[in-house]
Design a protein that fits this description.
385 residues; alpha/beta; Aspartate Aminotransferase, domain 2; 2 domains; 4-stranded antiparallel sheet; 39% helix
Length: 385
């Protein structure tokens, strides 16, 4: 009766089961996985947000497949005007943007390449479009980089696009300029598109002139850059994302036309958030100052607690909201997370949630309120002692 695209009957994993039991018992959990900025104790300018959403033009429905021009102009302003409005298509979220792009680029059974480790949503998004995910490795040697030899070996006649997450979630690694050159050359030779997920691009934790902040200026290979209000302004509930199409003019124009046709089928972006876009994007600096301040402070604390002689190690992180801790191999990742939650009331995510190729890694959110974060880290390190 139902589609075979996904196995909807997957049972809850042991961590989810234990967490439900702990919460049912009333335990005070130190949640070091917080990814929702609206639940992380930041100071939101409520009046400005609500006023932006009160635009009377929202009372009139204006079905524009690519999005209302005023909203696309606001997005163009975010990029300093170097992205024309005709290259911008609004979506309800980055997840929807992936769905539109998979529809645009791939037939059922075709392949898209995604980084490993990375956010585990790709399998579900691709499966819903009957597209197959092929993983290419990121390797760590005092910093993360793309294994281009392994990537190239996995390209097949059915490969349609290569996804980069810039910076990656959870490794926090940006694509470097030298890597972009190699990636573009590979895509040109194999006639592949690049999909660049840039939702965390504004959250650089360190300075590095060798990194690429955005791919919106790529002009030699068809490229789609994704972002939105969810991370840029810390407003995931307002559901506004976008796709910027770049590349050779003919390919770019054909892609834009087809994307608009697909979007016209759904018209999913709400009118109020489109008219509010300029006002909401104007809050970006104040919100990012708060979020970056906490992320940097938490990362500094984490590094201060794990010295060079510690059995623990903090992997290098360049941007985003997460940090990766390499744990002593006295336990498996699953044992680590279950023990920390069961005995210490500390919730962290295991590396295998993000497809790390080896053990043992724990992923923590730098978005966590500082008091909770510091106490959680103390309990984690004490558990090993």
């Amino acid at each position: 009766m139902f589609s075979s695209r996904l196995n909807w009957d997957t049972p809850p994993n042991p961590l989810a089961k234990l967490l439900a039991e702990k919460r049912a018992s009333g335990a005070a959990i130190l949640d070091l996985t917080e990814s929702n900025p609206t639940a992380a104790g930041f100071n939101y300018p409520a009046d400005r947000i609500l006023n932006a959403l009160a635009d009377p033009r929202s009372l009139c429905y204006e079905p524009a497949p690519a999005g209302i021009l005023a909203a696309r102009s606001a997005v163009s302003g975010y990029y300093g005007g170097r992205v024309e409005t005709g290259r911008i298509l609004l979506t309800a979220s980055t997840s929807e943007a992936y769905g539109l792009l998979f529809k645009l680029l791939a037939d059922p059974g075709d392949e898209v390449m995604v980084p490993r480790p990375s956010y585990p949503l790709f399998d579900f998004l691709a499966a819903l479009e009957s597209v197959r995910v092929v993983e290419y490795p990121l390797v760590y040697h005092c910093g993360w980089s793309v294994d281009f030899d392994a990537l190239a070996r996995q390209i097949t006649p059915r490969t349609r696009a290569i996804v980069v997450v810039n910076p990656n979630n959870p490794t926090g690694s940006y694509l470097k300029k030298s890597e972009l050159s190699e990636l573009a050359d590979l895509c040109r030779r194999h006639e592949l598109a690049i999909i660049s997920d840039e939702v965390f691009s504004d959250y650089a934790l360190t300075d590095d002139r060798g990194r690429v902040a955005s791919l919106v200026d790529v002009n030699d290979v068809l490229t789609f850059s994704l972002s939105g209000l969810s991370k840029l302004v810390g407003l995931p509930q307002l559901k506004l994302g976008w796709i910027v199409t770049s590349g050779p003019l003919e390919d770019r124009d054909r892609a834009v036309d087809r994307l608009e046709l697909i979007a016209d089928t759904y018209l999913s972006v709400g009118t109020p958030v489109q008219w509010a876009a300029a006002g909401l994007l104007a809050l970006r600096e104040s919100m990012q100052t708060q979020i970056l301040g906490r992320a940097r402070a938490n990362l500094t604390y984490l590094r201060s607690q794990i010295g060079p002689d510690s059995p623990w190690r903090v992997l290098e992180v360049e941007g985003g909201w997460y940090a990766v801790i390499q744990a002593p191999r006295i336990h498996s990742e699953e044992d680590w997370v279950l023990t920390l939650l069961g005995e210490d009331d500390v919730l962290v995510q295991p590396g295998f949630f993000f497809d790390f190729e080896s053990e043992a890694f724990l992923v923590v959110s730098l978005l966590t309120p500082s008091g909770i974060f510091q106490e959680g880290i103390r309990r984690i390190l004490a558990r090993a002692d």
